[in-house]
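B., you asked whether I could sanity-check this one before it goes into the benchmark set. Here's the sequence:
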Amino acid sequence: MERLLENLLKRVMQHGTLTMILASGARITAGDGNAPHVTARFTTQAAQRAVFLDPELCLGEAYMDGTLVMEEGTITDLLDVLMSQPGVNSASLSGRALALARHAWRRVDQFNPRGRSQRNVAHHYDIDKKIYDLFLDPDRQYSCAYFEHPGQSLEEAQLAKKRHLAAKMVFSREDMKVLDIGCGWGGLGLYLAQIAQGQVTGVTLSKEQLEIARQRAETAGLARRADFRFQDYRDVQGPFDRIVSVGMFEHVGVDHYGEFFRKVRELLDEDGVMVLHAIGRSDPPGITNPFIAKYIFPGGYIPALSEVFPHIERAGLVVTDVELLRLHYAETLRIWRERFLARRDEAVRIMDERFCRMWEFYLAGSEMGFRHQGLNVFQIQIARRQEAVPLTRGYIEKEEGRLRRIEEQILSPMRLAGE
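And here's what the prediction gave me:
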């Protein structure tokens, strides 16, 4: 097994230097000898064997369990050097076989009827809410920020994200009826109610998120403009002038895309517009990373655009704009990871050490997925009629300027930063 592991590492490592200290004490060094230099150690033969046979799942499990220990560099450094190697995902014969098996099984994993959808959401979002306070901005934006310029703070970039989405929704008048599918903790819905002057209905399957969203609406005096509900989007009754969904489509499941867009068409008014913000992949259709699927987002899947567009077309909807945010999420995840690690001792007290290692691996692995492995974020603007939005994209910047002026009038300096 040690010889096989050595052959695998030397085949994978083409740049940088990785040293693995095996459970027996033997050392394997692979790469070109140049920086970065990363060293990790296995403490058990079982962990070593598991990672060799199924690295996508078991590397994270070994780190969680403490059977993979970092000796030089961090787990982020290890994932950075490994995931940046060309061909790393197809290097192992067992890995290729497992990928084929998981691809064949993915429709079962992503079958998300109402009850299962609620359980999957609760798995991630209904944990102790203090965990999210450790690394999110005060507005609790748990999705890709929009960095307008280098050095912009997370708070400013998350506000810019909400403004960018609102601009693409084309608010042509006040009191437009807006549906927020997967409203989270209510930050975007409250922005659309207060700044864009919409009548917002937000739906979520997380009881923890719902409680916070409703409290925030009451505190801000926006309860009459922002109605948050514990409801599956499939049970919502329309029509709506505008629909937005941020970070929810990844949980729909590949077999439910047709159902999702048919429901969107049913809910949209004749001149309605939707903006869908979701993680996607630049590569062809694939599978959910098994570690993420097991421990972080059960039932989730990151689609290729080629899997999404046919269902939009079949639903009788028109794609009017597509934007890819590319490395914006890598930067968002970097900041989240750094903030989480800065308060790691608090996280251990809230949960435990194993959870913190799992969360660190999740944030670091996700960041490197966006930097090296073709993950992306797309914003798709959709309408029932192509005339529903302006013909050129200049309106987006113009509308962002209008919304920014309203923010300056309504929000205090602290609130502008998301606090």
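One thing to flag: The mean pLDDT is 91. Otherwise nothing jumped out at me.
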